[in-house]
Amino acid sequence: MKILVINAGSSSLKYQLIDMQTEEAIAKGTCERIGIAGGKLTHKARGESFVFEKEMESHTDAIALVLEKLTDKKVGVVKSMDEIDAVGHRVVASGEEFTKTTLVTDETMKVLETLSELAPLHNPPAILGINACRAVMKGKKMAMVFDTSFHATMPDYAYMYGIDYDDYKQHKVRKYGFHGTSHAFVSGEAAKYLGKNPADLRIITCHLGNGSSISAVKGGKCIDTSMGFTPLAGVPMGTRSGDIDCAAAEFLFRKKGLGMQEGMNYLNKKCGMLGLSGVSSDFRDLTAACKEGNDRARLALDCFAYACKKYVGAYMVALGGLDCVVFTAGVGENTPSVRAAVLSDMQAFGIVLDETENNRGNDGTIREISAKNSPVKVLVIPTNEELVIARETAQAVGS
Ligand code: ADP
Questions:
Q1: Which of 91, 174, 219, 357 is deepest in the core (most CB within 10 A)?
Q2: 328 touches ligand 1 (CB under 6 Å)
Q3: Which of 147, 164, 224, 354 is catalytic?
Q4: Strand order in the sheet with 367-368
């Protein structure tokens, strides 16, 4: 079985064609600058990387180009579209309407369209991607796989905000969480690596990248997560503020003369590591600047690690103990100094890192970085959100 995984953004579209027998991507790539002059497709297949410059007016043009390359004699990996069994689409927000992977139909698309309000930057492009595939691949089975599904198991007292209950009911304002496919994948891989039944494990998964979120996973199910109604909440991120007192935000907007939209843009794009450091939103730049003595880069990194540490502490209590901490995503997989800072001085709580193992370079495999005598295991696990989408899709279309 071969599943095409699509992750559509407003002007970009990423794809992977995954062979479900081997669970390997046999081709992958990205369309950039959709609807903007200078369109480009980077396509990786057969051990090579190919770049095609082609204007793409719409997501439909982009999907058509992707299919042309996937079935091309020289750069393709399948003879025809018939060899693609189904398509899995990444969708960020499911609201409360969808709690699991859902087949794409006229009816489910109608419901999905009502949810764009919940993720105005992410859901509308996903809808464009789905509609484009439906236009170009008529009759092909498709599924929508949500970033939020894994968090649907949170208990009500974890996802509720302290607001009027009627407002929650009417407007659906609550914590939803994000990066669910990643938290699901790495917590599952951790159980496999440890040779344990997920039902017996209490795991904290730290997805630390440009956007970061931390989840508490008990018995294979998410019981809490750091992002909220939107991906703005939780720890400070590349450019997002993370948790902030709403009244402080309102005060700042007033002082800076920002309207609500501009203010939200400020919190999403100009804060976090970028705002704190004045250097960059990228952790590579920040760690380099910090080493050179830049005190604001040091401050940004300290704020980040401290916020992550507090979530680890809180979730350890919420889980009633802890068996394993997992680091994943760009920063979690590649930045030993951040991992060490997040878990520093936690010996009293059973978390001891092995410095040598922590500093070993990322080789793309699962690595155990806790000391041999550490009661809590600490693992670095490369995430694979596309594989989760492919597995979920295979299951949904098969059933
Ligand atoms: P996104 O949230 O956009 O998916 P990523 O998970 O790719 O982000 O994480 C991006 C962050 O990870 C950047 O701050 C970058 O510094 C860091 N990062 C990514 N790859 C590496 C690497 N090979 N070495 C060090 N840091 C990396």
A1: 91
A2: no
A3: 147
A4: 221-225, 212-218, 202-208, 324-328, 377-380, 367-368
Written as tens digits, the pLDDT of the chain (399 aa) is 999 999 999 899 999 999 999 999 999 999 999 999 999 999 999 999 999 999 999 999 999 999 999 999 999 999 999 999 999 999 999 999 999 999 999 999 999 999 998 888 889 999 999 999 999 999 999 999 999 999 999 999 999 999 999 999 999 999 999 999 999 999 999 999 999 999 999 999 999 999 999 999 999 999 999 999 999 999 999 999 999 999 999 999 999 999 999 999 999 999 999 999 999 999 999 999 999 999 999 999 999 999 999 999 999 999 999 999 999 999 999 999 999 999 999 999 999 999 999 999 999 999 999 999 999 999 999 999 999 999 999 999 996
Measured CA to CA, the distance from residue 276 to residue 279 in angstroms comes to 8
The sign of the dihedral angle between the CA atoms of 191, 183, 309, 335 is positive
CB 34 within 8 A of CB 12: yes
Cα(142)–Cα(8) distance, integer angstroms: 14
Q: Which of 182, 205, 334, 386 has most ligand 1 atoms within 8 Å of CB, for mutation?
A: 334
Residue nearest to atom 18 of ligand 1 (CA): 330
Number of neighbouring beta carbons within 10 Å of residue 336 = 19
DSSP 191-247: HHHHT--GGG-EEEEEEESSSEEEEEEETTEEEEES--SSTTSSS--SS---S--HH
- For the question of residue 147 being annotated catalytic, the response is yes
Task: Identify any residues that bridge with 327 across adjacent strands, giving them in sequence order.
Answer: 206, 380
Secondary element (H or E) of residue 291: helix 283-291
Mutation choice for ligand 1 from 183, 276, 282, 285, CB with most ligand atoms inside 8 A:
282
DSSP, collapsed to helix, strand or coil, labels residue 356 as helix
Q: Is the CB of 55 under 6 A from ligand 1?
A: no
Cα 199 versus chain centre, distance: 24
